[in-house]
Amino acid sequence: MKIIADYHTHTIYSNGKNGKRKHAIGTIEENVQEAIKKGLKTIGISDHSYRHLLYGLNRDSIFEMREEIDRLNEKYKEIEILLGIECNILDNKGTIDMDDKIREQLDYVLAGYHFASEPTSLRCLLNHGDNFLLKTKRSTRYNTDAIVNAMKNNDIFMITHPGDKGDVYIEEIAEEAKKRNIILEINSSHAHLNAEQLKQIAKYENRLMIGSDAHKPFMVGNFSLGLETVKNSGIDIKRVENIME
Fold it and tell me: What is its EC number (predicted)?
């Protein structure tokens, strides 16, 4: 069994332009070097997008990142280096922090819900608190609608850690992802998708990938938790698209 790709990794660009947010460490090149060391064929750089109150890249940094990745692709011929982004799903309408100018620079888009993403309304702000403290059925409904509508309204490659920061009705998400050929992530830094969720959605035969969600270079390609989750779920490892037997 061999890991061939990791599409979910972060760098110092997630810390903003002045670097004061300290959300991740390591440069793009350090992530690439770690990926090569671990024998990956593809490495994706997917820093947090810009509408978050605590961390995320500066909006204009994406152009600098594109230039750096193009240069590194010339330097490291043995690996494919892609530029992605992890957008915040901002509300139950499925709004994500993305615009056309940024999208033109990217190879793919990830999207997930995060605490402290910029609220678009009072209801959205209250839902952050509900997710963090109360975890009511109202918040589960809101979270589910947010992810489903994000998939309906945006060009998304993969949904990251569904259900991690707030409960969701995972079958509704799986059904929509299947319709739109969107990958669901088994996150190796968080406990979602977890084994019970995978059992619950097995009938939909969704596209699945494990992501390291690395915030330090040594974590790139670290799929230990994800592989354990797959094993405990009973699903066939062949269904995980970035694993080769």
Answer: 3.1.3.-
> Under 8 Å CB-to-CB from 186, ≥6 apart: which residues?
193, 198, 208, 209, 210, 211, 226, 229, 230, 240
The reported pLDDT for the residue numbered 191 is 87
Where are the chain's structural domains? Answer: 2-227
225 vs 17: CA distance, rounded Å: 32
Q: Is the peptide bond before 193 cis (omega within 30 degrees of 0)?
A: yes
* Cα distance between the two ends of the chain: 4
CATH 3.20.20.140 assigned to 2-227: yes
Q: What is the mean pLDDT of each run of 10 residues along the chain (245 residues)?
A: 94 80 90 97 97 91 97 98 98 96 97 94 94 92 98 98 95 98 97 96 97 97 96 95 91
